[in-house]
Design a protein that fits this description.
about 55 residues; mainly alpha
C-alpha cells in the first residue's frame, strides 16, 4: 500500500531512520519504522488487523 503524508516534514522524518531516532528515541523509532514498513507491505488496511500486537 502507498502511504501518503499530508505534511512533507512528517514524510521526511518517517522515511529517515536517523531523524526518527533523533525525534523519538531509539525504541519508539524502531516501532514507528516497523509500522511504516507494515503499512507499506499491506495491500489494504484490513491486512493491518492481522499485525496488531501488544505495544511494549
Amino acid at each position: 500500500m502507498k502511504v501518503f503524508f499530508e505534511d512533507p516534514r512528517l514524510e521526511k522524518m518517517f522515511s529517515n531512520e536517523k531523524e526518527l531516532r533523533k525525534q523519538h528515541g531509539p525504541a519508539r523509532a524502531k516501532r514507528i519504522g516497523q509500522r511504516v514498513k507494515d503499512l507499506t507491505a499491506a495491500e489494504t488496511l484490513a491486512d493491518m488487523r492481522q499485525n496488531v500486537g501488544p505495544v511494549p
